[in-house]
Amino acid sequence: MHHTLAYVSLAFYAASLAGYAGFLYDEKAWMGRIAPVLLAGGVLTHYLALMERSRWVHTVPYDDLYGSMSLFVWLLALTYLILEIWHRRPSVGAFVLPFIVVWQLALLIFAPATPPPPPPGRGPMLALHITMGILGYAAFALSFILSVIYILQSRVLRNRRPGRAFWRFPPLDVLDRMIRSSVWMGLAASIAGLVLGLIWERRLSGTYSATDPKVLFTFMIIGLYGLYLWLGGLPAWRGPRAARFCALSFVLVLFSYTLVNLYMTGFHRYF
Amino acid sequence: MVRSVQAECLDVTLVGCNHRSASVGVRERIAFTSEQALHAADELCMRGIVEEAIVLSTCNRSEVYGVASEQNADAPAALEGFFTAFHGLSPSDIDTHLYRHTGGPAVEHLFRVTAGLDSMMLGEAEILGQVRDAYGKALERGTTGPVLNRLFQSALEIGKRVRAETELGAHAMSVASAGVKLAESVFGDLKGHSALIMGAGSVAEQVIGCLRQRGIGEMRIVNRSRERAEELAVRYGAAPASWETLADQLSWPDVIVTSVSATDAVLDRETLEKVMVDREGRAIFIVDLGVPRNVQSDAADVYNLYLYNLDDLDKIVSGNRNAREAEIPRAEALIQEQIHKFDAWKNSIAAVRLIEDLRAQMHEERREFLRDRRQLPENLSAAERERMEQLTSDLVERLLKGPSGKLRRARGLRERIERAEILRELFGADENSE
Known about the structure:
- The complex is a heterodimer.
- By secondary structure, chain A is mainly α.
- Chain A contains eight helices and no strands.
- Chain B has three domains: 7-169 and 327-345, Beta Polymerase, domain 2 (2-Layer Sandwich), CATH 3.30.460.30; 175-312, NAD(P)-binding Rossmann-like Domain (Rossmann fold, 3-Layer(aba) Sandwich); 351-427.
- Chain A binds chain B through residues 26-29, 153, 157-158, 160-162, 164, 166-167, 169-174, 234-241, and chain B through 164-165, 167, 170-171, 181-182, 184-188, 276-277, 279-283, 300, 303-304, 306, 308, 312, 315-316, 323.
């Protein structure tokens, strides 16, 4: 059942991408209006798929690589949807949705046929810790995509050769606000996730493993994005330089989510 | 037999000239002020030249639309005669500059006008407002009727549709609007932003107009002649400033537009670097419309400064013009669709056809009614059944006699069309039925 729902969500995401691309290419207002509705449909069905999966594996739905990635995709879609509603700029969707569609498709192709073994420890606090951690990653991923758009758009403006699609993009000021919104969201989620994780660990084992690479990298990520917010207010850093810094910061997030998870930490397997 | 509302009676006649058919000198002579346009339409109706009239007059066109009365066989000639007489000209003065259309071509012409295909600047939106205004005033004055009402409403609808469904109205077509659009792509809504205009020539005035239209927050104008700066400032709700204070004015605006006539650059890189320090690195957008250029070209390398000169804007405008031209076939297709709709409406109010439609519909109802009831009186003979058919058929004809007579007795075209429309609506006869 969760697979069927996941395929339905993929169909919604793909239709939404078509809407966003149509809006970007053809400036059809109705496409710009329908695309977020389709995205909302995808988010809802994806949520149902995650819930169904949690029933199937008898634990939180993101206790394995597939589940963790699926939750990441869902939170990326949700975060983008919230940002779009907040800033009312559908033109960015054409750049965010391809990630969501390709990721979801790849997940469905490589979805495991058997449920993973249940984890040693669980509970609502652990679930919330993981959700917050992945929400942080999703928000930072979004800030990365927005930063790249900002850098490209600023470059086009400086080169004085705006093409046809250029006029559909959000203004630099709006993009800057969108980047900062997503970074704030990512920071809040990461800090909440970190605190919850530390409390949960303290309850479980009576200690804090502050030297765990995952924890250290999370501290570094929080510090780096905090630095971005500070730099963004400095005269020499405002604008494209801050966007470049934000885009580069995502390398650390990616490193933490992949290599650190897989090879450097003992108990942060997939999140 | 019902006297018909002949299709020709519903034909729209158009006589006029535009920027293509007449030079500005000729257009000036046959332009109508807004009051004259209403007066002319009144006269046309009162003299019985047409039953309905609208005069559309803008700086690029003067056109008279009319629906000929049944007594007037040669409406175009009559309209043309009125046109020349109204302006005190002889026919030979403007004969070669006028176009005359009747029926379909007149309808198509108006649809092309509202779609922006007939404008000097392809796809411009102002014409839609001008047509709406002319129609609204004529409607208020009572010189329109069902045909022109339908025609102008259809024209306004297609004008909006073309702009919504094609890119004919998209993208800036003037250097001034391209500059302002670029500023918006940096700052978004200009309401919370400020602009400094250096110079007060005609190009600067265009930019000031565009910035004001886009709701720029605060605007200051500096010019060597303070009087001219003050004049523009009053007209556009800006603040004038003297040229001597220019250095102090540079750091606060987000947008600088410069069109000063000077042999050397007015703003150099060093000055702008200082400006950026004063602005704490906030982005600045500079439009240099001066020839020779007012801003040193290497100033474009200053961080977070976006600089566009006249050549850059010209290239953008020319690209936009090509993009708009590529949309013409799509706009034409939409116009053809609208013409079909208008023709379908015209056919639907032709009285003969309306009565025929009603007759067919009522006989169909009658047959259905008899089919439903036939089983009930089982003991009816074939002859009695035939008699029943005849009686009900006569009844339908009797019922149709009233509406037919009312249509026949209607005074004038306008009343007949109104009655035909009411009849069709009451009886639910399909407007688009073949």
